[in-house]
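[step 3/7] inverse_fold.run input=structure_tokens len=446
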């Protein structure tokens, strides 16, 4: 996989985001986000998925062709007559030109498939338990060239033709990796969902896949152990989910004029948002960086977390479709134009939090806790334990993915989140690494 945009040399990063394929994707994504939010019926979802699938396959096909040409040129061969049409004006005889175009396609592929992730969240009624349980497998990667693609497309078309039943293709997403598809049957005003394994060879046994599918279903229904190598259980809480995502929209409204804006978020957090287009209009690149650093410093002061405890933070840029359990930007309660800016990194935000704020909130609900992350650690793995919480003889461990996703990116209400941790500790069968599932979470994303 190509490196993160932040890890590329600036000149190459600029070539990626300004590439014609990337620029065209911005308009396409805006249309898709708007169309998805207007879907209401099975036919709406069927037609939307067909359109999205065609776009994903087209960009994956172009990427594969670009990689083939780059390889041939590096072997000293001439540009073949069947080379795909180069979309940039850079020299066609330079393999780096084709490498760049392939990298842009990889990026646009992820952006498009993040819309498929939003489709999955939407048809599953924004039930995070389903996403968590069905994401616990190795994703197969690109659909183009996959042996079973024709069978999967036929499966979708046959169900629609014969029963007018919408079938969600898991491989189109980046968040669903257990099962090949889910069919949805209308029952009154509701839908029943059915997982499917689609086999090209009816005699081939898939005992391991079917076992993981059964485990996923039990994890959703009755908090059984999740499939996959990382242990854990999903625990259903009776607390409604609350966030401060309205502040994100407010901050971006201000940044649209000011370029960059800092805001204090309840729970000892500092939010800084940047409108990249506006910032580049106002300042030089270095001035933009300096101004953002100043705004961040002031936001930390207003949040009273400057040099207090161990500060952790996350940036939103280049996260699209990199974590299967992270809610996709397209379901965030934000206008489509802003969602597209987040997807394409023309807007970004960061949230900083002090460990002391988190520990104090847990003490407020009667828990003892300790922060386990070393201060000098520059990067954190998603599965790394950063916090242990105790109540009596019970102990649970919280991984970085939970803190990063819920408390930083989603800006969950800290008292609500802490009360949820207390409820986890009240469940004797929740295990040492439980996943919180709040009530009425769909109301945040709808």
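[step 3/7] decode complete -> sequence:
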């Amino acid at each position: 996989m190509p490196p993160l945009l932040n890890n590329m040399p600036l000149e190459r990063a600029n070539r990626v985001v300004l590439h014609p394929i990337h620029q065209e994707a911005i308009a396409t994504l805006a249309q898709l986000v708007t169309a998805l939010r207007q879907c209401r019926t099975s036919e709406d979802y069927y037609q939307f998925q067909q359109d999205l699938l065609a776009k994903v396959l087209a960009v994956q096909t172009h990427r594969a062709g670009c990689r083939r040409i780059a390889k041939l040129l590096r072997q000293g061969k001439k540009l073949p007559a069947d080379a795909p049409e180069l979309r940039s004006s850079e020299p066609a005889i330079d393999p780096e030109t084709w490498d760049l175009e392939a990298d842009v396609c990889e990026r646009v592929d992820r952006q498009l498939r993040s819309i498929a992730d939003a489709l999955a969240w939407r048809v599953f009624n924004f039930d995070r338990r389903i996403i968590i349980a069905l994401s616990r497998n190795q994703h197969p990667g690109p659909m183009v060239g996959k042996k079973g693609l024709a069978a999967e497309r036929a499966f979708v078309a046959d169900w629609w033709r014969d029963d007018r039943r919408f079938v969600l293709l898991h491989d189109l997403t980046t968040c669903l990796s257990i099962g090949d598809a889910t069919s949805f049957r209308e029952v009154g005003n509701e839908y029943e969902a059915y997982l499917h394994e689609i086999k090209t060879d009816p005699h081939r046994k898939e005992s391991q896949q079917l076992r993981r599918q059964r485990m996923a279903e039990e994890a959703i229904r009755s908090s059984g152990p999740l499939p996959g190598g990382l242990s854990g259980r999903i625990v259903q809480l009776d607390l409604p989910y609350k966030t401060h995502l309205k502040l994100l929209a407010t901050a971006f409204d201000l940044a649209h004029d000011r370029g960059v804006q800092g805001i204090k978020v309840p729970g000892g957090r500092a939010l800084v948002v940047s409108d990249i287009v506006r910032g580049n209009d106002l300042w030089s690149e270095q001035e933009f960086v300096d101004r953002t650093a100043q705004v961040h410093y002031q936001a930390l002061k207003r949040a009273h977390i400057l040099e207090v405890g161990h500060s952790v933070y996350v940036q939103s840029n280049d996260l699209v479709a990199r974590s299967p359990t992270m809610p996709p930007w397209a379901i965030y309660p934000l206008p489509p134009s802003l969602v597209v800016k987040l997807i394409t990194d023309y807007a970004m935000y960061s949230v900083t939090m002090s460990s002391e704020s988190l520990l104090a909130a847990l003490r407020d609900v009667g828990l003892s806790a300790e922060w386990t992350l070393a201060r000098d650690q520059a990067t954190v793995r998603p599965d790394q334990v950063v916090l242990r919480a105790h109540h009596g003889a019970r102990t649970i461990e919280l991984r970085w993915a939970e803190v990063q996703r819920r408390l930083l990116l989603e800006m969950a209400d800290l008292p609500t989140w802490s009360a949820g941790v207390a409820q986890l500790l009240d469940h004797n069968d929740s295990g040492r690494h439980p996943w919180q599932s709040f009530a009425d979470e769909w109301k945040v994303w709808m």
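[step 4/7] annotate
Residues 233 and 378 are 29 Å apart (CA to CA).
Residues 42-74 form the longest helix (33 residues).
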